[in-house]
Amino acid sequence: MAPFREHSVSAQDGARLYVRAYGDPLFTRTPLLCLAGISRNSKDYHALAQRHAGRRRVVCPDYRGRGRSDWDKDWRNYAPPVTLGDILQIMAALDLGRVVLVGTSFGGLLAMALNALKPGAIAGLVLNDIGPAVGAGSGGIMERIGRDHPQPDLTAAAAYLRAQFPHLSYRTDAEWLDFAERTYRRGEDGIWHHDWDPNIARAFLTGDTGGMDLWGLFRGFARIPTLVVRGGISDLLTADGLAQMVAAKPDLLSVTVPGVGHTPHLAEPEVQGVLDDFLDSF
Questions:
Q1: In this structure, which of 107, 265, 271, 278 has its CB flanked by the most CB atoms within 10 Å?
Q2: CA distance 6 to 64
């Protein structure tokens, strides 16, 4: 049996959205809806999904312009309001009523906004290295995703990523090669390119990002169980930013991965047990 089912969901404007769904659709436990980082895709959640697919559904979409979803001819459609509409469309198409949200970086911001758009649908929240107080590290992200860095093969791609992101928690050659496979795709020219549309950056640098009140959205989780994972040297969710979140929500659970930057991959020894116990409580 395949580890996941593949779905193709049509957005309201006709764009094709790719979704991976793990686990039996008839499971009665609350499903997980996993939202990736700004340029990332469903493959980032494969390990987490496999750990929980024996007990519940785990749904992992590719946003438009990422992974196997359609690229949009109009870069303005990469703005968060459109992405949120796409996620709501996916939830409706896959009959996802009440869910536990797992959001990494940009995916965490989308998760907070979904709670406002779909009240009562969020049973729990995991924020991976993100919060309402976004640190200075966000600026460099747009520059990185706005350019392609083609590589001749996956081995070269892994070496490039290893040099660019030494703050990540991958240690072995196999782990870096897996990260490269989740980051690159082989193009028709035989060269490996980033697995996203670089025009995504334009929507955030010059487009309508929705004007979200992040602290207002976070306060909407006052009665919703929430776990925050933080990289110990992250410049996107700083120690001070996490302290502000705890002050605003005293029952907030958190775990920090020492020596790791933006973002933890959620399988670190410090994280995995805490995260799995949190998810198993639903």
A1: 107
A2: 16
> Tokens for 214?
């992040």
Residue 111 neighbours by CB under 8 Å, 6+ apart: 35, 101, 102, 103, 122, 125, 127
pLDDT (tens digit per residue) in 261-272: 999 999 999 999
Superfamily in which the 5-147+211-280 domain is placed by CATH = Alpha/Beta hydrolase fold, catalytic domain (3.40.50.1820)
Place of tokens 């949200």: 101
DSSP-derived 3-state class of residue 180: helix
Residues of the chain with pLDDT under 50: none
The pLDDT of residue 209 is: 60
Spatial distance between the Cα atoms of 180 and 84, rounded to a whole number of angstroms: 27
Q: What is the pLDDT of residue 150?
A: 97
The enclosing H or E element of 126 equals strand 122-128
